[in-house]
Structures are given as structure tokens and as C-alpha cells.
Amino acid sequence: MSKIKKRASTPEIRLLLGNEAIARGLVEAGCQVVTSYPGTPSSEIVPGVVAFKKELGLRTYIEWSTNEKVAYDNALAASLTGKRAAVAMKQVGLNVASDSLMSSAYTGVIGGLLVISCDDPGPHSSQTEQDSRFYAMMAKVPVYDPSSPQEAKEMVKDAFQLSEKFQIPVLLRPTVRVSHGRQSVRLSPVKKLSRQAEFKKDPERWAATPKYRLLLHQRLNEKLKKIQRKFETDKKWNYEISSSPQAKLGIISCSVSFSNIKDIVEELNLKNKINILKIGTPYPFPQRRVEDFISKHDKVLIIEETDAVIEYQIIDKDKVMGRLSGHVPGAGELTADRIYNILARILGELKIARLKDKPNTKLKALIKELNLPQRRPTLCAGCPERAAFFAIRKAFPKAIYTSDIGCYTLGLNLKAVDTVLDMGAGITLASGFYQAFNQDGKNVPIVATIGDSTFYHAGAPSLINAVYNKARFILVILDNEVTAMTGMQPTPGIGVTADGSQGKRIPLERLIKGCGLDWIETVDPYEVKTLVELLKKAGEYVRSPDGGIAVIIARHPCLIRYPQEAVVNPVKVEISEDCNGCRYCLDYFECPALYLEEKRNRVEIDRNLCVDCGVCINACPKGAIVAKG
Amino acid sequence: MKVQIILAGIGGQGILFLSKILAELGLRSGLDVIGSEIHGMSQRGGSVIAHLKLGKFSSPLIREGAADFLYVLEINEGYRALPFLKQGGVIFANLSEREEFNEKILNHLKKGKIVIKKYDANLAASQVGLLRSSNVALIGYSVGTGLVRFRYSDVKEVIVSLSRQGDVNLNLKALEAGWKEGKLHSKDLWRKATS
Asked: Exposed, middle or buried: residue B175 (CB in 10 Å: 0-12, 13-18, 19+)?
């Protein structure tokens, strides 16, 4: 994070990533406990808090938890002792934590509890485009919807106050362009709360049985009514910009979509023709404010991400244009250009203004003619996971390959991944496939892959279930000793905690043994031949009369996180004259450092990318990739 | 003042670092800064594009036909980002001597009065001995041409403060190499304009 200060001006302005601004908001609000499981686009919140903690000498307790539900409960407990606490996750993480969210909405909180769920319209780095604001509605908790990093920081502080006043968890829902927006952010003083933990027993609330749950639900409804009244009159997060009486078109907008609309309206000088109502608190819904705004216009366009949360809550949709009416696309990110196009069409249809067509049609056609290669994400050159996938395909060319969430999803490129569903599903789908085929008396080879962090997150209970129900498959745990895809967070296997201090290590081998496994081997996937042999042995065990699940831990440090340790015996490779351009290495090994020199029809090595791991020597059926000298 | 900048390249080329440097420079010039980055899956060798807006803006995203500057670290990603440039915009492209934009596209850009400044930042970076410093070399070049108006001393300070410890000196060398080359080109421009 940047520590450059603007010269001699107050308040201090810093360039912060949206997630760092949220971290700053937590610190400014006096939040004492922060928990999280990493996931794009939320992963920078915890490192942000760690950085401010160190800079300001705070005593904040910060943890990378093993999953989002675990993170939620740990933060909630802190709130029950009267402290301010926050839990951060990506939007699909909230699926995992939803059980806790629903229940704690009823019981309520003591110290402020902020739940941060980062949405990913696009999606850029997620399985779904789900809108976390629906979770706020389902759980019946208020939600703040920031339109910029600066606003996100301010909303964090307001959300804590609201949470404490009404004793209710509060959701903050930044979208990816807020979380990964970078803005010059005005800092405010840091609140130092030194609340001492105290737990007042109240079993009717904290251990409520269904009878009391009904009362809690009624109480929750009352809280929501009061919060709705507050949001109706709020001017800070819900406000109109330009209120021209002659404007026929109104736009209701929120999140970063509002920022896009605002820039477009200013740039095109449409202030007299369009009024905008910005909604920063979409639930509980400021119904009267919205209805009043709609009544003043002939037509109202709703521009919101990711789904139609505001639009659904408008009762009379007669004048309303949005996702439900088909005026706004039902999927994909609302980029500035898409919003411009929607607006241009509607302004034209309503004969309010004619916006210029984009001048770029010809240029785009010319670019299309170039047939640019689609650049797909790929495992890094030298990635140990590539070596493992290559070995898996070699040992079992026709297996069903179930995999999981992480860098190794990119094993897709090596045709060694058939399924990616959600965290832990590498194992659950493997056991499910086994049972479905076994029921018919069929025995198909199944090789599951899962990363170390994902195994700690959701893999262990899946494995216990598979062992318990006597499933049979090979499980390869790709242990690169870090949570790589989300930005190199530590895992329980390494035992380092969020602030870099040493926690207690939980070795995979011990955990797996505890899950009831009898066949466990550890190997370095760079030793491709050894791994192939081991996989075949594992296959024999799986098929044997007393067999079961065989686990291979393929352990090799991530090259990005541990560049020194990852390649200890560098091997310079070269392509011999035997290469005939058969493309086998490109299709089945797929290292970005290998490419086809089209003129000579032979493979070459990109020295800028090659890390001298030497693993590709195993990848040429003709033996044309050789060690130099 | 309002300036909009697009940065295009491949995951691993340091687009985000480049964006951070330019953002800090904007902040030092007393401008508001807002921009957008993409993290996660795309950083594993996929297309990476960053938006950066200096001045009074609300949205972090740049619309097509609105960018003043386009930094290109890799030619194909550069093509994809071309529609963002406005008429009269400037491209700083990291291209080797052999690489050249497609002729039809060049002609089209010329009609739009778009200025293309080619520089082999990869070569400069490899000469310096730190391949990943090509992004810094390209910044040096752009500032050297005088088309991007940041003070060289400011750029140096920002690079020192943002670089990884071990990279500081080599990044500064790459910056200087780019800046000197940019200076030469700025004289070219001057000579062409006055002859």
C-alpha cells in the first residue's frame, strides 16, 4: 500500500484501492476484530487492515479463517462481547456463511457487526454474478451499496453506528469496480475503542429455541421498520442530483453504476433533461422517496448492478424501465459503454436527445479482421500444478477429472479438469460420481484434484463423507503451500497467520489421516515419472478388494510466492533437431514458455518466461526437449 | 485538468504497477485520482487492462473514444484497447524493431490524428538486467517525450517508493534509459515541426 503523503495538506489524501479504503474505514470506526477468507474481489481488505494496524500501532485482532462461515462466527462472537467486528468475503463466500447470517439476523448483535460481501459483476473471477443485496433481503438485514472507494470508507463507519443502534448485523456490498477501484481517498482520524470483552448470558436470545425464534423474528421486523424510516429521510447516501422540473426522464441508480451515469450526464450536458436519484441503502427500501421521485417523471430508468434489487421492490412498475422490462441486459457487467448505449437508445426512443453514435465502428471492424488470439489465463511457467496435471493425464488418460476452485481450475487447459463447481466439489463430485456409477456395477477411474487452502476450507468434511460412505477414487491434493490465486495468503498447512506471526501448523498428512484414510503418499510433482508410478499404484489400491480412497499430496512451493525455493536445481532445456512440430507438448503440457515457431514448424522456448524447472523434458513423446550440455 | 489513461498488456507484465505509478504521479500533481484494475484469474497470463482517470471524475471506468493516452505493453492487447482512444490521443507502445501495427489500422489511426510512439522497452529492460522493468522503461519514455507532463524527479521518487526493495536500482536504470530515449524523440518531434 502506498504511504506517500500529499504535501502539507489536511486532511491527508492517500491513493487507496477500494478494499484498502474499506480497511481504513474499519480502522477509523474502531473495529477491533476482523476475520475473512480470501476470495477475489475481497482479498485486499485483510492485508489493508494489517498494514494500518502496523502503521498506527493498533491492537486489532485479524485472522484468515479457514472458511467464510467460520470467519463469520468468529467475528460475531467478538460482537457478542461488545466489540466492533467485521467479516469480509467474496459474494460466493456469503453462500457459505449464509447460515450464520440468517440466524444472527434474528439474534442480533451487541457490538457493531459489519458483513462485507464483494460482488463481481462480469464475472471477472467468480462462478456466479449473484447480487449479495438479495441476501440482505432474505436475511432481513440492512445493506449499504457504495459507489466509490471513498464512499465505501464512509459507509463502513455509518454501518457500525446503525448496527449498534439497532443491534443488527449490517451488510456492505461493494462491487468489483469499488473493491478494485483505486482512488485518492481523504482520510479521517482513527477511533481507538478499548472496549473490554464481556459476555452477558441470555439463553433466550443466544440459544433461542423455535418458540423464542418467533419473538426474535417479530423484533427483527420492528427493527427493519425503524431502519426503513431512517433511510427514507437519509440525505447522505440517498440523494438527487439535478432536480430539473422540466426533465421527463428520471434515473434511479446505485453502486458504481451511479458513478458512471453521473460522469456521462455531466460530460454530455444532460442535466436539464435527466434527473438522478442515487440510492445507497437499497434495503430496507426507501419506498416513499423512490415513489415520490417516480411520480415526478414520465419515465424512470433503473441502472443497478448486479441484479434487479431496487426494481423488484418498486410496487407500481408502470413507468419503470430496467432489467425486468428488458431495457437493461440481464447478465454481464454494466460498463460505462454499456450504460451509454442503454441511455442513448432510451433518450432516442423518448425523443429527449440524440446521442452521437460511437465513432469506432470502422476501427473495431479492422481489429476484428486481425483475428487476434484469445488470451486465456494459464498456469505460470514452471507451475508445479501443471506437472501434476500432466502426470495425472499420463497415468489415467480416460478418467473423470473432478477439480475445484483455485489456480488449478486452469488444469482445464491441459484437459485434466472436467468439473469445477464450488469450494470442495472436487471431492464431493468425485464421491458422487463413484456412487452413481457403482450403483450400476460400473467401475470408472476418477481422479479428483483440490488445492491445499481449498482442502482446509471445504475439502475435509467432503473427504470424511466420502470415506464414511466407502467411495473409491484417487484424490490428488495440489499443495503449493499458499492460497495462490487470491494473492498469496497463508494456509493452516504453513501455520502463518494474517499478520505474519506464527500460528499452529496443521500438516495435511495428519488431517487426512484423521479423515480415516489408509493410503496416503507425498510426492514432489516435479518428479513426473515418480508421480505417474504412484498414481498407477494408487489406482491399484482403489480397485483392490479392500481398497478405498487413495490420497497423493503433490507438494511443491508456488513459484510466485517462493521464487527461491521453487526451482532449486535449475535445468536449462533446449529443443533438439528431433522436434517435428507435433504440438503434443503444447496441447498436453501447455507451458506458456513453449511456443510453435510457425515458419520452421518446430517448438521454441521463450527464455523470458522459462524458469528452468526442466519438467517439460517429460512432455515430449519424441524426446526432443533435452537438458542443455 | 482531466486526463484519461488506458494501460493494456498481459498478466505478469506489471500493468497494475504501472497504473499505481501514474496514479501516484497524478496525486502529486494535486489531481483527484480514480481508476480500475482487475485482479485474480486474469493475472495468470490473461489480458489485463487498467483504467486511470486524473481530475474531477466519479466513475473509475473510461468510455470508448475518451482516453488521452494508451500505454501498450503487448501489441495484441494494444489492438484490443485501441477503441478507447480519443481523436488526437497518444499511444506509447512497447514494440520491438520488428513489430509494427497493422497497416490498415495505422492508416485509420492517422486519420484520427492519433500519435503513435514506439519504443522497445523490453530491450531496454533486458539491457538493464531486469526483464520486468519494461513497464518502468515505458513510463520513462513517455515522460521523456514531454507528452505526459510529470516531473522526472517526481517519477524517480515514486519509483523508489513503490518498487520492491531489490528492484529499486534496476528500475531507476530502466526509467532513465526510457527517459533518455523519449528525450531524443521529443527533439525529433520538435525538428519535424520546425523544419
From this structure: buried
State the ipTM, two decimals.
0.91
Domain positions in chain A: 13-231, 239-349, 384-566, 573-627
Q: Inter-chain contact A358–B45, Cβ cutoff 8 Å?
A: no
pLDDT tens by residue, A137-153: 999 999 999 999 999 99
The number of C-beta contacts closer than 8 angstroms across A and B is: 165
Interface of B with A in 127-146 (CB under 8 A): 131
Query: In CATH terms, is domain A239-349 a member of 2.60.40.10?
Result: no
Residues 6+ positions from B168 with CB-CB distance below 8 Å: B159, B160
Q: What is the DSSP letter of B71?
A: E
* Closest CB to B65 among A177, A181, A359: A359
A240-288 pLDDT tens trace? 997 788 899 999 999 999 999 999 999 999 989 999 999 999 999 999 9
Residue A4 per-residue DSSP state: P
**Helix (DSSP H) and strand (DSSP E) numbers for chain A:** 22, 22
What amino acid is encoded at B67 in this protein? A
Rounded CA-CA distance A425/A416 in Å is: 15
User: For chain A, what's the residue count?
Assistant: 629
Task: Tell if the pTM clears 0.80, that is, is over it.
Answer: yes
Hey, is B66 helix, strand or coil? coil
Whole-number percent of chain A with pLDDT over 70: 98
Q: Which residues, 6 or more positions from A244, have their beta carbon under 8 angstroms from its beta carbon?
A: A271, A272, A273, A275
Q: Give CATH for domain B3-120+145-164.
A: 3.40.920.10
Cell matching residue A229: 424510516
Q: How far apart are CA A271 and CA B148, in angstroms?
A: 32
- Is B83's CB within 8 Å of A181's CB? no
Q: What is the CATH number of domain A573-627?
A: 3.30.70.20
A181 alpha-carbon distance from chain centroid = 15
Would you state the cell numbers that stand for residue A566, as one nine-digit string? Answer: 521453487
Domain A384-566 has CATH 3.40.50.970: yes
pLDDT tens digits, residue range A297-316? 999 999 999 999 999 999 99
Lowest mean pLDDT among A9-18, A117-126, A191-200: A9-18
Residue A41, preceding bond cis, omega within 30 degrees?
A: yes
Task: Give the residue among A384, A364, A183, A170 at the shortest CA–CA distance from A280.
Answer: A170
Q: Do B45 and A6 touch (CB under 8 A)?
A: no
Q: A13-231, what's its fold?
A: Rossmann fold (3.40.50)
SS3 state of residue A120: coil
Tell me the C-alpha distance between A533 and A396, whole Å. Answer: 11
Q: State whether A147 and B34 contact (CB < 8 Å).
A: no
Q: Is the dihedral of CA B34, B36, B39, B45 positive or negative?
A: negative
CB B74 within 8 A of CB B9: yes
- How many angstroms separate the CA atoms of A516 and A187, rounded? 52
Name the minimum distance, in Å, from the CA of B89 to any CA of chain A.
Answer: 14
Neighbours of A81 (CB within 10 A): 17
Q: Which residues of A462-618 form beta strands (DSSP E)?
A: 474-479, 519-523, 550-555, 573-575, 594-597, 602-605
Chain A within 8 Å of B52 (Cβ-Cβ)? yes
Residue of chain B with shortest Cα separation from A359? B65
Interface check for B35 against chain A (CB to CB < 8 A): the answer is yes
Rounded CA-CA distance A382/A590 in Å is: 11
Out of B41, B61, B80, closest to residue A367 by CB: B80
